[in-house]
Design brief:
This protein has nine helices and twelve strands. The protein is an alpha/beta fold. The structure holds adenosine-5'-triphosphate (ATP) and 1-O-pyrophosphono-5-O-phosphono-alpha-D-ribofuranose. It catalyses: 1-(5-phospho-beta-D-ribosyl)-ATP + diphosphate = 5-phospho-alpha-D-ribose 1-diphosphate + ATP.
Length: 228
């Protein structure tokens, strides 16, 4: 059996089901509302694994699922060696979101990451501690800031309501996902002009490490032909 992991809740679930449906493959939740059991209609040899978008990268990397749907951001953040562990099979055209670096709108002299670097040095001199950037995307933000030449900062972990950390005075800047931009605007934050860290969308990934026999390989080829 080829195991296909799809989000069982959250913002990617419904559109994932619709995406497969348009390609003649029906994914169904079975059992009660609260039971995470599923079935697949329209193709043989594929079983459905329902899980959260955030768990799909780990399951693919462990080879417990052969295919999985999740955002580019979660794969790149959670799998340091993602290119060796997974392969993108299809960009699905929904779940678009940008991971961006944002600072208070009132910081009129800070428009670029270079300006942030200067502001960070000044901040440390004035306050005696490093400028804090709140995020849940630790790896992606660190890599981005290293490439941008910004060093004088501290990451603060924020697993939700990240834009609120500036008003709450637990951080001076944030790095988070944005789609409409409403949350950033409502919290008086602006994106740095060169502050796009990653453009993400829902993507169908193939595990490079999951075990397969010849039958599985042929089911996988057939499934990929149908959807890509
Ligand atoms: N406006 C948005 N805010 C946050 N994530 C978004 C947005 N639009 C698309 N996404 C994408 O959705 C995915 C996360 O989905 P979701 O928040 O449903 O997953 P999750 O955090 O694993 O869910 P849960 O923890 O509720 O199970 C990420 O890949 C993210 O890039
Ligand atoms: O640009 P927007 O359309 O306003 O969307 C962006 C917001 O959506 C997400 O939060 P989510 O709703 O997942 O809540 P969270 O803060 O608990 O992560 C993300 O973390 C941003 O806060």
């Amino acid at each position: 059996m080829i195991k296909l992991g799809v989000p069982s809740k959250g913002r990617l679930m419904e559109k994932t089901f619709q995406w497969f449906d348009r390609r003649g493959i029906t994914l169904m939740r079975t059992g009660s509302d609260r039971e995470y059991a599923g079935a697949v209609d329209g193709i043989d040899g594929v079983s459905l694994v329902l899980l959260s978008a955030g768990e799909v990268p780990r399951e693919l990397a462990a080879g417990r699922i052969h295919l999985g749907v999740t955002g580019t951001d979660l794969i790149h953040e959670k799998l340091p060696l993602w290119e060796q562990q997974v392969e993108p099979m299809a960009e699905m055209g929904f779940g678009h979101a940008d991971l961006v670096l944002a600072v208070p709108q009132g910081w009129v002299d800070v428009d670029l990451t270079d300006d942030l670097d200067a502001a960070a040095a000044a901040f440390r001199a004035a306050h005696g501690h490093r400028l804090r950037i709140a995020t849940k995307y630790h790896r992606l933000v660190r890599d981005f800031l290293r490439d941008a030449g910004v060093a004088d900062y501290a990451l603060v972990d924020s697993q939700g309501a990240t834009e609120g950390t500036v008003a709450n005075e637990t951080a001076e800047a944030i790095a988070d996902i944005t789609s409409s931009g409403d949350t950033l605007r409502a919290n008086h934050l602006k994106i740095l002009s060169d502050g796009l860290i990653l453009a993400s969308q829902a993507t169908l990934w193939r595990s490079r490490v999951a075990d397969m026999d010849d039958d599985d390989r042929s089911v996988l080829r057939h499934l990929i032909d149908r959807v890509s």
